[in-house]
Amino acid sequence: MAKGTIKGEKIDIEAALPRLRQMMEDTNDPEFMCMIWSVHAIQDRVFRNSARYLNFPKQAATSDFLSKWRAHKWDLESLVTLYLNTPKVTKPFWQRRPINTREFDTVATLVNLLLAAQDFEGRERIDHTNIMLEMHRISHRQFAWQRGFARPVDVYRALYIYGQGECANFFQDAYGVSIMDFFTVAFAHRGYLAQGPWSKRVPNIDILGVSQNAIVKSLALLSSDIWEMRRESMKLLNKFEKSLGIKLPVIYQPSYLRVRPIIRLGQASGDLYIAPFPELIIFRATVGLYYDLQPGGTTVTNDAAARFEEYGRKVLKAYCSAFDPMPAVQYVFKKNNVDTPDILLKKDGVIVAVFECKASKLSFEAQYGDDPVEDAKTGYSQIAKAIFQLWRFFSHVRRGLVKLDGEVATDAPAIVLTMDAWTQMSHELRTRLVADAEKMVEEKEPEITVEDKRDPVFCPIQELEHMLATSTEDQLLTAFKAAIEPEYTGWSIREVRKCAAPAIDEDKKFPFSLQEFLPWWNDLKRQKANEG
Sign (positive/negative) of CA torsion 241, 246, 250, 253? Predict the structure, then answer.
């Protein structure tokens, strides 16, 4: 899309946001959501019903990120958020000027106005002192959309960590439906609502073994009435603006679609539903489980943390069989029980890498605050603590305070394995976390020396999975060791891997099956294979 212009005319960037709001306040809710659904559908290669609702040139039906016709999903999501946060007008209908929701040109106009508003708000906010933190925020807004929300590896990981044990028990008791049934309902509606806008709900999922009661309970977590969406979206915005003490730029306002990805419209003949972005239904039923479980307290969160550590060992062994990932070892130091880091990675009898795992999810403040470390103290303090724990381990090994089954390699990397990308695109954040870990050393264990303070490698679990699928054991270790070199300062570990070691001939297949949690999965795969 031609940024900075509307049909060839230059946009007044100062007037862009007021103009956007005026266009939205005059427009009918069902028609606006249908327009967003339609442009997403044509660019997600779902053509079956799109042409009934949107007139578009054939060039617009593209999934090419670089195409000038591409409406990026993160921009469309921001438009929906702004729409929900824009109060509806009370003026007579003959004074309103609703947008033409049936034309692709309208979407182009809205996106270009959004980009212009982004430019205007950035003029006062961004300069040479904070441009790298802005890259951190931009990456959080865009990268997940680029990676996708419905990959089997992400679904499996979420069900493994949150779908068992205390987590599963709490969810069942709190919400009246099992996590597996909840995911099944979400999965069914993702496919169903991708086929058309404003549809009845899935009538039954008997074939997948899900009851009507489970559908009702699940939809209560997945959907909201349009007016409730508006009210809760504004409450969410107000909450985070108050927490951060700033007025959030339009592109960083929190999306209530991440909480309720399905919008419900009450009708005398029965409720109608739309999912402007069907993949967010899967996001809600996987990543969103973390937030459903927070009311369960430490018993539940500790269970999830332990399973995250277990999953880390499981995935390392599944992809790279020459590795022997060992769990933490407990020992006594100064009359107190102390644990080694969570994963001691052995190869040929030697501990070649050490992982400390942190299962906390990124908060909104950590992603979009002006000062993430300060705005999300609790989360970032856990990452700094992980660095300290790794340093303490290497110090205790050097001082002979812990006995292990195997020696620790002198070049074994110190890896912080996280559920999310806490330091994405920001060397500054990493530097501050190391400084915070240094303070912990001074306060808790000054015997830790410079020799013990191995430079930490920050590795989100998604990047570890990708590297394992594209690396041998030695290539993975090469990437971890290279990550601390000056030329890779600020790089993601995944990008370091691409440059530090050659690619393998063929990516490894995903080593697990969702059949482990979803009894219907293999049958569905066979059915699709027969149809295709």
Answer: negative
Residue pair 257/82 in contact by the 8 Å Cβ criterion: no
Distance (Å, whole) CA 324 – CA 461: 18
**pLDDT digits over 443-455, tens only?**
999 999 999 999 9
The CA–CA distances, whole Å, from 196 to 193, 373, 469 equal 6, 43, 35
| 88 CB neighbour count, 10 Å cutoff | 12
Count of other CB atoms within 10 angstroms of residue 528: 9
Q: Is the pLDDT of residue 340 over 70?
A: yes
Model confidence pLDDT, tens digit, residues 50-101: 778 999 999 998 888 889 999 999 999 999 999 999 998 777 777 788 899 9
Do the bridges between strand 414-418 and strand 456-460 make them parallel or antiparallel, or are there none, so unpaired?
Answer: parallel
CB–CB of 308/357 below 8 Å?
yes
Q: Quote the CA–CA distance of 236 and 255 in Å, as a whole number.
A: 8
User: What pLDDT, on the 0 to 100 scale, is given for residue 532?
Assistant: 59
CB 471 within 8 A of CB 497: yes
Question: What is the rounded CA–CA span in Å between residue 148 and residue 384?
Answer: 29
- Which single residue is written with the structure tokens 């921009």? 75
Question: Between helices 297-319 and 165-175, what is the axis angle to 10°?
Answer: 130
In whole angstroms, give the CA distance from residue 205 to residue 519: 13
- Is residue 512 predicted with pLDDT exceeding 60? yes
